[in-house]
Specification:
Blueprint: H1 10-18, H2 29-42, H3 45-49
Length: 51
């Protein structure tokens, strides 16, 4: 379970998180393709899979 230390109560924090606009959405095909390519080129997925 992720734990965050925040200066506000749970409700206020949840409302602030809910208002965050994502920088990447599933329908942004150009960004998804770019990120997919960058991960394939720069991340050792096999090493991560063995953790």
């Amino acid at each position: 379970m992720p734990i965050l230390l925040v200066p506000h109560d749970t409700y206020t924090t949840a409302m602030q998180v809910e208002r965050i606009e994502p920088l990447l959405t599933a329908d942004d095909e150009e960004k998804v393709a770019l990120i997919t390519r960058l991960v394939k080129e720069n991340v050792d997925l096999a090493a991560l899979g063995s953790l």
